[in-house]
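Continuing the series of single-chain predictions for the mutant panel. This is the parent chain; the variants come on the following pages.
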Amino acid sequence: MGIVSQLSIIHLLWAAMVFCQYEDYDFEDDYDESDNQHPYYFNPNTQAEVPHFPFPVQCAKECFCPPAFPLSMYCDHRKLKTIPNIPNHVQQLYLQNNDIEAVPAGPFINVTFLREINLSHNKIKYHLIDHGFFAKLSSLVQLHLQHNELEEFPSPLPSSLERLLLGFNKISQLPGNALEGLPNITMLDLCSNVLDDSVLKGKPFSNMKNLMQLNLCNNKLQTMPPDLPSSLMHLSLENNSISYIPENYFNRLQKIIALRMSHNNLQNIPQNTFNLPNLLELNLGHNKLKQLFYIPRSLQHLYIEGNDIETINITLMCPSIDPMNIKQLTYIRVDQNRLTAPISTYAFFCFPHIRTIYYGEQNVNVNKPTQLRRPVFQRFLTPEEYHEAEEDHETRDHETEEDHESEDNYFHPYFQ
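Parent structure:
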């Protein structure tokens, strides 16, 4: 009996080995054996290039250099008034939330491969930046200088730069050649400065062929920025004084995905202004609109709260129904308008994917805001989704106006 048991165990082990061999093979994988395919042979003498660091990694005494991230140096939130000497191996340098006023070249004298500098939330002044210093950092990809005291654009900058954040400064001018030497910029943030229309007359963004996101919110613009590059996908113009959009303004901006123009002075918008094939989010809240416009097939989220709209004309939004090109609109926010009745049910034929219409309070009575019978209309929601949506609106009811402005100032992290 013992021999039989041993043989059974051996048999089971053998079967398991065979099963495991077949388990590792995916029968659904396609195998394409081409005539030009050459076998790959492992070369034991080949070694991957691994950067060599001193051990322990050199680090400024004022900062922290985690062993798990040997290319990064963290000097943030340390009440620093000067920039410490930077070891030559550092690629990511974090100096945000300090009291730094000047950026001299000295601490960076040995730096070769610096790719990211975060100097946000300091007290840096333009005239205290060593002229031409940033331009010498030929590997720099990201530069964070938001929340400082810059009076001018910090040019010259390296041509390698891809993301430049200059929000919350005092910049009032863009030198004619400031942006010409930055062909690789994909994201430019100039929100919360003092830029006006005169700055944009020279069309400073026209040659930025790779620009995908442009933030100009919280400035002093009265007209739309001219001659934006066709590569643009995200445009932020909230909190300006823009009163109109030229009829064919977006004709060359067919890649736009998100457009934010809340808190402006828009009154009338030409019917086909937003007939864009890729537009997903459109925020026109807190303007002076009295009627709507054509809604493109791609649009999913529409924000028109805080306007003077008395009725929502679905025919303007959807002149015809095309079963082969169903519109994708899922969410509309229309609170703080002058609506006295819900949106016509015809909307659900034009926009069959609508899941939420947020009516909230309406400004029909000057002295007292009124509320439609149902402040939130929701359909096609699972119980979990319905509960989540209710919680979201409850949260918004408790938010302050500053919270909403803070949310509007920038795109979500995904866009940044």
